[in-house]
Design goal:
The complex is a heterotetramer, with 2 copies of chain A and 2 copies of chain B.
Chain A lengths: L3 E4 L3 H14 L2 E7 L6 H5 L2 E6 L10 H11 L3 E3 L9 H9 L3 E2 L4 H8 L1 H10 L15 H11 L3 E9 L2 E6 L2 H19 L4 E5 L5 E9 L5 E13 L2 E7 L6 H17 L4 E9 L5 E7 L6 H8 L3 H9 L16 E8 L1 E2 L5 E2 L2 E2 L2 E3 L6 E5 L6 E2 L6 E9 L2 H14 L1 E3 L7 H9 L1 H4 L7 H6 L2
Parallel strand pairs in A: 1-2, 1-4, 2-3, 4-5
Antiparallel strand pairs in A: 6-7, 6-8, 9-10, 9-12, 10-11, 11-14, 12-13, 14-21, 15-16, 17-20, 18-22, 19-21
Helix pairs in contact in A: 4-5, 7-8, 12-13
Chain B lengths: L20 E5 L6 H17 L6 E6 L2 E6 L17 E3 L9 E4 L4 E4 L15 E2 L4 E7 L2 E6 L4 E6 L6 E2 L4 E6 L4
Antiparallel strand pairs in B: 1-3, 2-3, 4-5, 5-12, 6-8, 6-11, 7-10, 8-9, 10-12
Classes of the chains: A alpha+beta, B mainly beta.
C-alpha cells in the first residue's frame, strides 16, 4: 500500500479522497491554487503545496507543477478526482513516466475510451449492443447522409472527442442533415481541436442509465449496479439515484454483465462508469465510459456498503479485488442532491462568496460530502458545487422524504450567496419525480423553460 | 457576525496575507474622502479601545477597513505572494523592499551547475532580466530573472530545496538604499 | 477565529444575557455624518461598558463598525432574566420601568371569573403582593401578584391567551413617575 | 398519524425526534428553558414554548408546564426522548389524562419495569433466565444473609428503585454482608426515597449486552439485535457498538427471542431495551428493561436500516408494526462515540462555553447527531453530551478506522471548551479494544485510575 498520496483536485472530491486515505492510514498531500489556500482539504491534509494562481490552467491543470509537488513531498501516487486531469491520458502517462502511480486506468485505456469512435469499436468487438450508427468517424458528408438514411431519422451527430453534452446535434429531417453535419464538425474542431464526428440513431424518450464497475489488475471485475441521473439542467446532473426506478432488476443485471465484459475486454483498471441508453422496450445500448470516479458515486456506496475510493486506491496499489459479484448485495434506495452555489432565480448564475453560516444536515441515513464550513469563502474561479447530500432509506418514498428533511435543515448563509437547495426541493416534490415518471426534460419543465 | 476573514484578492495595502493582517479593499474610484474618514475612524477607535482588540472592521458603503490581530504576538509569518514578480516584502512592518517569488513548483538552484559560483549573492546588485537562479521543474531548467533593479538583501531558500508557487526566493532592496 | 454573533431579534441596546455582546442597528443615513455618529456611538459604548465586551458592532445603513476582543478576561456573565420577578423592560431603549412576567406556562386571565371586572387596569397603582391576574396551569388557578409597587402602564397579554414562562404580562412604571 | 408532536427534551435527542417528525410530515413543538432559547431544536421546530428557567426541575422535569405547552399549541402527542421524564410513569399518566399520547409504554408498564423487583418477578413469570437471587425485596437482614449464602458469594445488593449504577454494593465475603445490606438500604432510601433492596449473584467478568425491541399495540414484537456498551467510565457509556464482538449469533438470537417474550408478557409498547448479563460460559440473565429510546440507538439503526424513532411514533399513533422478525437483516458493524464537552485531563469536568468553530465530520458511512453549531453556547446547566458520531463499515476493523478518521476531522473550538474527542481516540486504538478483549474496566485502565 502507498505511504503517501497526492490529491490532484479541489473541493468536495479532494476531501472525499483524503478521507479514504486517512482510513487506509495513508498520508496526504493537497495541492492548491493561491485561491484555495484556506480550503478544507488544505487544512486536513498532512502537507500542502501551492501549485499556481487561481486559473485552473495554471494550477489544477498544471501537470508539471503537480508532478513536481509529488516529487518534492515524496508522494507515491496521484488521485485525480473527477474533472481537471482525471481523464487526461497525457497526465496519466506523465505520472507513470515520473514513477508515480496514477490512480485510474492506464493511459492507453483512457485514450481509447475517451475517443467515442474508438470506444464504440472496442465495445462492438466485446459484443456490447450499440445504437445503429457509425463505428468509424465519417469524413464525407455524402457517406454520412447515406448512413443516416439507413439508420432512420431522427439521428444524432456527435463529436468523436466530445463529452458532457457538448458537440452534438440532433437531426430530425434528411434535408437538415448536410448543414448540421458541417456545423457539428466545425464546432467539434473549435471545442476539441478534433473535427471527427459519428452518426447514430437518436432516441428521444430514452433513459440514460449508468453502471458502476470495479476492475483489478488480475482480470477480476464486478459491477455495483446502476444509477439514474435523469434530473439534469443543460446536461448538468442535479439529482442522482439508485436503483433506477422502474427498471427491471433482470435488465440492470444484464447491463452490469455487459459493462463487466466491456471493461475486461479493454483492460480497464479501477473504478469506471459505463453509460447506457435504454429505450422504451427496455433494449439497452452502450454510450460511453467515464474513466474516473463520478460525482454521484456515493449513491452506489450507500446501497452496496462498498467504499469506492478505497477500492480505487487498493486496486492502484496492486491489490486484488476482495469483492466477488455475489458479495455485492444492494439494499434500499439512495438519492444524491447537488447543492450548488447558484441562484435559480437568475438562471443559475454562480453566487460565490463568504459563508457566514454553514450547518450541514445530520441524523439517520444522511451523508454530506462538502468542503464548506462556516467562514469559508467560496471562490469564483471554480465550479459551483458546494455540497452533496446523500440519503438512504428502505424505499424511494422514504428516501425522498428524508432528502426533503435534510435539505430543509441545511443552513447556508452569506452575503450574496444563493444555493440550489430550495430548487432541489421543488424537484423532489414534483409529482412526476415522486412517481418516477420523469425524464431529462423535468428541470426545464419545472423552470418553464 | 463580525468574523473577519482575509480578502484574498483585489487591491491590498499593508502587510502579509497570512495570520495577522490588515486589508483595505477598494472597488470603485472617487472614494478618497470616504476612505480618509474610515481610516480616521478606525485609528480613533483603536486609540480609545480599553485593551488591544482582536479585530476591527470599519465599513462605509463599498469601503471597508478590517484589521485582526493574532491572539498571541505571532511571529512574522512569511507568506506566499503573487507570481515571479516582485511583491512587497513580508512582515515585519519595518522591512523594506520587495521579494522575488517562485513562478512555479520545482527545485531551486542558485548556481548554473553543481559546484559553480551562484548567479547572485547577498549584496549583489541586479538589473531587470538578469538571471538570479534556476527552478527545475519536470527536468526543465527554468531561469529565474529579476524583474526590477535592486540589491540582494537575503536569499530566502536553500540551494536544492523544493519551492512552491509564489514562495519568496530573494529579498531585494531598492538600489538607492 | 473572532466570530461574534448578533442577537437574533429586533433592535437591541445594552447587553444580552450572556454579557458578551452589544449591538446597535440603525438604518439609512448620509455617509459622513453617519460615520462620525457611528464612531462616537462605538467609542461611547466602549467607555460605558461595565466590563470589556467580546465584540462590538455598530451599524448604520451602509456604515458599520465591528470590533472583537480576544476572550481572555472572562466577562462576568449576567444571568438570564429569572422567574416572576420584575425584570428590566425589553426594547425599545427609551422604555422605562419594569415588566411583570409569567412564572409558568398557562392561560392568562385578567379577571377572577368570566365577565367579572379585571383585577387591575391601565393606570391602576399596585402594591407588592396584590393579585393582578391568574394563570391557569393544569386546572390550577395560580395567582399572579405584583412584587413591587408601581403603576400599570400596559397590559401586554390578552385575556385568555396562552403565555410561556418568562413572558412579560404587565408593564409597570415607578409610582413616582 | 399525529398532526403535531411536542418534544419534551433538549439537546441532540430533541433534534433527532424532530428529524423523524419532519420525515413523517408531523409538525413539531419544542419546549425549552430560558437557557436553551437559542438551541438547534428551537430554531428547527415549527413552534417553541419556553417552559421555565434553567434548572431542569423547573423546566424539562416540569410536567405541568409541558402539558400546558402541548395544550396551548394543540400538540397531540409528547415524545419524551431519554432521561428527564422519559421513564416517569406519573408523567405518562398525566399526558394520557390530558388527552395527549405519551410516546412510550403505558404508565403501568413503566412502573412495573422501573421497579427492579417487580420487573424480575414479571420476567421470571415470562420464563426469562435470571441470576440466582431474590425476586421479592428483602426486608430483614437475616433472611437476606441466608439467601446470599444460598446464592454463593460474591453477591450484589441492589436498590429496587435504583438505576444507572447508583444504589448498589458488591459483597465479597459473608462477614461484610450485614453492614453492606444496611448501608445500601440507607443509600437507596436517600437517593430514591425507597429503601427496598434485593440480592443476586455477582459476576465479576460478565458482559453487559442489551437487546433492542419494538412492540406494537396488536401483540406484534420484533428484536433488532444487540448492542455492546462495555466502554464506560463510572457507569457512563462512552462507546457503543453492534454486533457485540465475539458473541455467537446463535446466542444473541436466543437473547432476542427472550427479550421479545418478556416484552409481550408485560404488554410493552414502542421501543425498549432489555439488558442482559452474559457469563463466561455464554449463559445470559435478564437484568432490567429501559422503557425509552437509548442514546446508543443509532448503531442499531445503522446495521438494520430501521429508523427507530419513526417506528416509535408510528406505534404510538396506533399503527401496526410493518416489520416481521425475518425482515430484520443486520449487516456490517456500527460504532457510536459520544463526544462530550468535558476535559479528560481534569477528571472529565464539564467545560461548557461558546463554540466558535464547529465542523462535524462527514463523508461515507458517517452519521452525526448533534445540537451543536458554530456559535452555539453549550449551557452549564445540563449534561455534557454534545454530539454522537456513528460510523458503519462492513467489518469491525474498518469501523474503527472510519471512526478514528471521523473523530480526527471533528473540529470543536471555543474559549475554555474541551471535548472527549481525543480521549475517545485513545480508546479506539487501545489494543484490548481493537481485539475486542476489553470489559467495563477498560477506561479506568487507560486512565490509570
Amino acid at each position: 500500500m502507498f505511504g503517501k498520496i497526492l490529491i490532484a483536485n479541489r473541493g468536495e472530491i479532494a476531501v472525499r479522497v483524503l478521507r479514504a486515505c486517512r482510513e487506509l492510514g495513508i498520508r496526504t498531500v493537497a495541492v492548491h491554487s493561491t485561491e484555495d489556500k484556506d480550503s478544507a482539504v488544505v487544512h486536513l491534509a498532512d502537507q500542502a503545496v501551492q501549485i499556481g494562481p487561481a486559473p485552473s490552467r495554471q494550477s489544477y491543470l498544471n501537470a508539471a507543477a503537480i508532478v513536481e509537488a509529488a516529487r518534492a513531498t515524496g508522494a507515491e501516487a496521484v488521485h485525480p478526482g473527477y474533472g481537471f486531469l482525471s481523464e487526461n491520458p497525457d497526465f496519466a502517462e506523465v505520472c507513470e513516466a515520473n514513477g508515480l502511480t496514477f490512480i485510474g486506468p492506464p493511459p492507453d485505456v483512457i485514450a481509447t475510451l475517451g475517443d467515442k469512435t474508438a470506444a464504440r469499436a472496442a465495445m462492438t468487438a466485446a459484443g456490447l449492443p450499440l445504437l445503429p450508427g457509425s463505428v468509424e468517424p465519417l469524413n464525407d458528408a455524402e457517406g454520412a447522409a447515406r448512413l443516416a438514411d439507413e439508420i432512420g431519422y431522427p439521428v444524432i451527430i456527435k463529436a468523436a472527442a466530445g463529452g458532457g453534452g457538448r458537440g452534438m446535434s440532433i437531426v430530425e429531417d434528411p434535408v437538415e442533415f448536410s448543414r448540421s453535419y458541417q456545423q457539428t464538425r466545425a464546432t467539434a474542431q473549435t471545442l476539441f481541436g478534433d473535427g471527427r464526428v459519428y452518426v447514430e440513431r437518436y432516441l428521444p424518450s430514452a433513459r440514460h442509465v449508468e453502471i458502476q464497475v470495479l476492475c483489478d489488475g488480475y482480470g477480476n471485475a464486478v459491477h455495483l449496479g446502476e444509477r439514474d441521473c435523469s434530473v439534469q439542467r443543460r446536461h448538468q446532473k442535479l439529482v442522482e439515484e439508485t436503483p433506477a426506478p422502474g427498471l427491471p432488476a433482470e435488465l440492470t443485471a444484464r447491463m452490469g454483465e455487459a459493462a463487466v465484459r466491456g471493461a475486461l475486454a479493454t483492460g480497464y483498471l479501477g473504478a469506471g462508469t459505463f453509460e447506457f441508453i435504454v429505450d422504451t422496450e427496455n433494449n439497452f445500448y452502450f454510450m460511453e465510459v467515464n474513466c474516473r470516479i463520478q460525482v454521484e458515486h456515493p449513491v452506489t456506496e450507500a446501497v452496496t456498503g462498498v467504499d469506492l475510493i478505497t477500492e480505487q486506491i487498493r486496486i492502484a496499489a496492486g491489490e486484488r479485488l476482495r469483492l466477488k459479484q455475489e458479495d455485492i448485495r444492494r439494499g434500499g434506495v439512495a438519492i444524491e442532491c447537488r447543492v450548488n452555489v447558484e441562484d435559480p432565480d437568475r438562471n443559475f448564475v454562480p453566487t460565490p462568496g463568504r459563508l457566514e453560516k454553514f450547518v450541514p444536515p445530520g441524523g439517520p441515513f444522511v451523508r454530506v460530502d462538502t468542503h464548506g464550513f462556516a467562514g469559508y469563502k467560496v471562490p469564483a474561479a471554480y465550479d459551483s458545487l458546494l455540497a452533496k447530500v446523500i440519503v438512504w432509506a428502505p424505499d424511494r418514498e422514504g428516501a425522498i422524504r428524508r432528502m426533503r428533511r435534510a435539505l430543509a435543515e441545511f443552513t447556508i448563509e452569506g452575503p450574496g450567496v444563493h444555493t440550489t437547495r430550495e430548487f432541489l426541493d421543488r424537484v423532489l416534490r414534483d409529482p412526476l419525480f415522486v412517481e418516477a415518471k420523469h425524464d431529462t426534460g423535468l428541470v426545464a419543465r419545472i423552470l418553464g423553460d | 457576525m463580525s468574523s473577519s476573514y482575509r480578502l484574498p484578492r483585489a487591491v491590498h495595502t499593508g502587510f502579509d496575507e497570512h495570520g495577522e493582517h490588515e486589508v483595505i479593499e477598494l472597488h470603485h474610484g472617487g472614494l478618497d474622502d470616504v476612505l480618509t474618514s474610515v481610516q480616521r475612524t478606525a485609528a480613533d477607535l483603536l486609540a480609545r479601545s480599553p485593551h488591544a482588540p482582536a479585530s476591527l472592521t470599519v465599513r462605509a458603503g463599498v469601503v471597508a477597513v478590517e484589521m485582526t490581530w493574532a491572539a498571541t504576538p505571532a511571529p512574522a509569518a512569511v507568506a506566499a505572494a503573487a507570481a515571479s514578480q516582485t511583491v512587497p516584502a513580508a512582515a515585519p512592518a519595518a522591512a523594506i523592499g520587495t521579494v522575488l517569488a517562485a513562478s512555479t513548483v520545482g527545485v531551486f538552484y542558485r548556481s548554473p551547475s553543481p559546484g559553480a559560483a551562484p548567479f547572485v549573492k547577498e549584496g549583489d546588485q541586479v538589473v531587470p532580466g538578469q538571471q538570479v537562479a534556476i527552478i527545475e521543474a519536470m527536468k526543465l531548467m527554468l531561469p529565474v530573472e529579476a524583474d526590477k533593479p535592486g540589491r540582494v538583501v537575503e536569499v530566502l531558500v536553500k540551494d536544492g530545496a523544493s519551492v512552491e508557487f509564489g514562495q519568496p526566493l530573494f529579498r531585494l532592496a531598492p538600489i538607492d538604499s
